[in-house]
Amino acid sequence: MSASGLFAGRDLLPSGSTTLEQVLADEKWIRASALDPDIIRTIVNPATCPSPLLPWLAWSFSVDVWDEAWSEATKRRVIAASPEVHRRKGTRLAVRLALDALGAQTTIREWWESTPPARRGTLRVRVHADGSGPILDLKLLAQLREAVKRSKPKSRVFELEVALQSEAPLLMAATTRSITRTTLLPIVPPPPVAVAPLLAAVSYGAGVRRLVIRPSTPGDTPALAGLGVAAVIGRAARKTVLYPYPYT
Question: Which InterPro entries has this protein been placed in (predicted)?
Answer without folding.
Answer: Tail_protein_I
